[in-house]
Design brief:
The chain has 486 residues and is an alpha+beta fold. Among the domains are: 122 residues, no CATH class; 76 residues, no CATH class; 49 residues, no CATH class; 48 residues, no CATH class. The chain has 15 helices and 22 strands. A hairpin with a 6-residue loop joins strand 11 and strand 12. The protein starts with a helix and ends in a 12-residue tail after the last helix.
């Protein structure tokens, strides 16, 4: 595999065509949007405003022929319509031109209509097969057709890279390849250079060479995005570079130049965050949803995203049911609207880490105990005990000026004041005191004031004399003599 294949700039998107249709009854040109399972065709006005809803088809001869044959065979009452194929970038202008020739027929206009007209050529024995394949052949803005077939892949080349069909299927990576996308994750590959083997991680994609063969393209990891040279005729400004490095998206539409045809291609540009490749996507392939996480987008918001700009949305609902806000933006590499939460370059990340470290250090310093708690100012005796870490009893008032009581303790490590109601405090302290007393009795031979004179062994948890005899011992009363009188 040549170095040119692996390192060349990638075209924004394979060129596509738009399918226009003339309803012979209404004599009106429309753009095809989709066709349902019952053979009913859905159309939209062929305006630039609706261009993201147009059905797009691969302009490659074989792909288009197969697609249109399938489409035509599935269509209900196909003789009612005449179809035209026009380039996607000029679809709206061509539709307007064709409509004029429909309204005012002329020999020249008839020639133009014939030039763009598409006719289905179905073989009788292929009709049923085409109908069966309709589900996978149809292309709409929501579903992409398979651009390649598994048998077109050079599996010997894949094997030399250390990959197999079974491996790709198991990791769900074959499907995006066949649709013309890059793998959505890095793959470990090995390239045999004869005297040595190069091992690296890379994304893969399939591309069609000029001779029609399908080749495997390797997208290796670059140290940084190459923004110093022109990209399909576009020279990156300082603002472009800043946006791409910080968010991964350039944030505007620019006209790229097709190096082969000279055609201008309105596109957005993003960075492949896995490989640092510069990726472009033609605006005609941008599909903006009507709703994002429960927030319905208005026309102005959709237009903002269509132009590649960031959009801040409030009131979105997460999968856990919590409300959140975030900035969203269309990503050319991922081909969908993404959330921008923590997108930053290395310098910003280092600065953020430094700020977090400083904050952490500040929090780890000894904190001074507050003199006031919930509006209650502590007197000197209370405050001295409180700042020393002792628990003190306080009487407070709530927001309705109703009194309540409790215990507060200052935590020097966290700098926080812990509050407990009397019931909570007693539930925590009394068992601990009981355990402490019993440990002293059983292990250290000690006792408490209530039982210090009791001569008999105490029971577990005993805090006071259990009977009259032990009470007399505790009170230091002399035990009654059992001897006889002399």
């Amino acid at each position: 595999m040549s170095e040119e294949t692996t390192n060349k700039q990638e075209m924004p998107e394979q060129l596509s065509d738009i399918l226009l249709v003339l309803d012979k009854e209404k004599m009106k040109i429309q753009a095809v949007k989709s066709i349902d399972e019952n053979g009913k065709m859905e159309t939209v006005e062929p305006t630039k405003k609706n261009q993201n809803q147009f059905m797009r088809v691969d302009k490659s001869g074989d792909f288009f022929s197969n697609f249109f044959s399938n489409f035509f065979s599935q269509l209900k009452n196909p003789t009612n319509f005449t179809f035209f194929k026009v380039p996607a970038p000029v679809a709206a202008e061509k539709a307007e031109e064709l409509q004029k020739h429909v309204y005012k027929p002329t020999p020249q206009g008839e020639k133009v209509l014939k030039e763009h007209e598409v006719k289905a050529e179905l073989q009788p024995d292929k009709k049923q097969e085409n109908q069966n394949n309709m589900a996978t052949a149809q292309t709409t803005t929501e579903t992409s057709e398979y651009r390649y077939k598994p048998e077109q892949i050079d599996w010997d080349t894949m094997k030399n890279l250390g990959l197999s069909k079974e491996y790709l299927e198991k990791r769900n990576l074959l499907d995006p390849l066949l649709r013309g996308y890059k793998t959505n994750e890095l793959l470990p590959i090995g390239i045999n250079l004869g005297s040595s083997i190069l091992r690296t991680d890379a994304r893969l994609s399939l591309q069609q060479a000029e001779d029609g063969n399908v080749i495997v393209a390797i997208h290796g990891i670059k140290r940084e995005p190459n923004l110093h040279f022109e990209f399909f005729g576009h020279k990156f400004t300082d603002e472009d570079k800043k946006n791409l490095l910080e968010t991964g998206n350039m944030g505007r539409v620019v006209n790229l130049v097709n190096s082969k045809t000279g055609e201008l291609m309105p596109s957005i540009i993003s960075i492949d965050r896995l490989t640092n490749d510069v990726i472009a996507l033609r605006t005609e392939f941008i599909k903006i949803p009507d709703e994002i996480k429960g927030v319905k987008l208005n026309d102005e918001q959709k237009q903002t995203l269509m132009e590649g700009k960031p959009l801040y949305l409030e009131g979105m609902i997460s999968s856990k049911g919590t409300e959140f806000s975030a900035t969203v933006q269309f990503n050319a590499d991922k081909r969908y609207v993404e959330f921008l939460f923590d997108r930053s370059n290395n310098n910003q990340q280092a600065q953020t880490n430094q700020q977090n470290t400083q904050l952490s250090n500040q929090q780890s310093q000894p904190q001074e105990a507050p003199r006031t708690f919930r509006g209650k100012e502590l007197d000197d005796e209370q405050y001295n005990k409180f700042k020393a870490g002792q628990t003190i009893y306080v009487e407070l008032k709530d927001k309705k000026d109703q009194p309540y009581k409790g215990y507060i303790t200052f935590d020097k490590d966290s700098g926080k004041t812990n509050f407990e109601f009397p019931g909570q405090y007693k539930a925590r302290v009394e068992p601990a005191e009981t355990h402490k007393t019993q440990t002293a009795v059983n292990s250290e031979g000690k006792t408490n004031e209530a039982t210090k004179n009791v001569q008999e062994p105490l029971k577990s948890g005993q805090q006071r004399p259990k009977n009259e005899k032990q009470q007399e011992q505790q009170d230091n009363k002399p035990e009654k003599s059992k001897g006889r009188k002399m």
